[in-house]
Design a protein that fits this description.
Helix content is 40%, strand content 3%. By secondary structure, it is an all-alpha fold. It is elongated, with a radius of gyration of 25 Å.
Amino acid sequence: MHHGVNPQSGTPQSFYFPEDDPTMPGWFKGMEQIIQEHDLWPETGLPAKCSGFKCPEGQTNCCCRRLLFNQNDFISQKSQLEESIERCGHICDFYPKYHCELNFIEQYWGAAKLGFHSAGRASTMSQLEKTVKKCLDDVELKQICQ
């Protein structure tokens, strides 16, 4: 991860101890240390995460994980993959997993399955294999890209 920004002072905040640190040179600071440096650590402390990663609805400071994930510097952080793609001049666009209306492979499978169901029953394995291949081949590129 890149350096964060301390919300209190607006200055850059490293998430790693400096290389000349006497006890943990170059190590990741950890959530508690980062939250303390953000001046957001409550006197009562915080658990690292809520049970089962299920935070109470509407809570933004129930655990370290949720508190950090709601900070602007964490929200705006791009993944290394996304930054690498954009650095090469491309657009990085992530689809929701298995989202049938956005993912082209789901469009392809849906059209192929519709063709297969319309083809009727096959009486032999050989006929079934031919039908499946024909249904996959019959899906038009235009239909996949919609």
